[in-house]
Amino acid sequence: xxxxxxxxxxxxxxxxxxxxxxxxxxxxxxxxxxxxxxxxxxxxxxxxxxxxxxxxxxxxxxxxxxxxxxxxxxxxxxxxxxxxxxxxxxxxxxxxxxxxxxxxxxxxxxxxxxxxxxxxxxxxxxxxxxxxxxxxxxxxxxxxxxxxxxxxxxxxxxxxxxxxxxxxxxxxxxxxxxxxxxxxxxxxxxxxxxxxxxxxxxxxxxxxxxxxxxxxxxxxxxxxxxxxxxxxxxxxxxxxxxxxxxxxxxxxxxxxxxxxxxxxxxxxxxxxxxxxxxxxxxxxxxxxxxxxxxxxxxxxxxxxxxxxxxxxxxxxxxxxxxxxxxxxxxxxxxxxxxxxxxxxxxxxxxxxxxxxxxxxxxxxxxxxxxxxxxxxxxxxxxx
Length: 383
Ligand SMILES: [Mg+2]
Description:
- The chain is an alpha/beta fold and 383 residues long.
- Helix content is 37%, strand content 19%.
- Strands 6, 7, 8, 9, 10, 11, 12, 13, 14 and 15 form a ten-stranded mixed β-sheet that branches. The chain has a three-stranded antiparallel β-sheet with strand order 1-4-5, with helices on both faces. The chain has a three-stranded antiparallel β-sheet with strand order 2-3-16, with no helix packed on it.
- The structure holds magnesium ion (MG).
């Protein structure tokens, strides 16, 4: 079997005004997708979703650049996939899409699922966590966070993660006010929903420490990226100060980038994303992390193919406690609408399709339904 073509399908959907979300100083206007498609002379196709934060047109440019060396090669050749370099996000996400498409193709050639290539006797489903907390506004409606988290519980999820809201400097928000809202969320769903907070690298160590202590006291499952990532020593102090894991690394694309965090015990959970670093590198990161006794909870934002690939990684991990897979609640109809055969989600679990491969194909009419819209997905907001 030989590869005959490698291309990228870029897709978008504009959010309705009420669907736009904001976490810091930008407002998200659209959902994007960048899917690498590998064609073969057998008719089999491999699909791999690259994280659209790499920029769909830049990703497509790198895929076009790398395609000639892939065309004519045997897709079963394990040395075929290029490696992420840790320097250029567009390149690395393009490589991630190619890598995931090759895993999909290799599983199809073997007549099995990607998860079967990763581990013996995998589960047929993976537990999800509702990932949102991006639409609450400290000035207008902070209580939206409580309503949304209650809705996630009602929808059957067993875990949920939220962010720290709009920029604190706009509305004089401080640690006490944030923790007041955290306690409101916990009072509404605590004990029935596993909870996590993502700081999106926006807090100081002085702010993060009392928050971490209170989240730990309330039984939160992890505290994600509280500080700017370069502050490795501060991450180490914070991680040592609480029993609850401090997590992070969603933007890292190589195992080298995780090394100082592992060696200094700065993170208790690492969060690679197969759409950002590729499944091959994510497996390597998980293996090295396990050597340090550090767990894995992949970052997984964007669309359904990436969820299936990250879900395959999660299902292959023999870690205790088992950690759920992130599912973006605010991506809109593109998330599953890009697939001809979206998988089943019930009671907060993603059920793996029968396969082969990742078990999903791009819908035939995606380009008509979700035409790519040029430009950045967000605009800067000033107050
Ligand atoms: Mg995060």
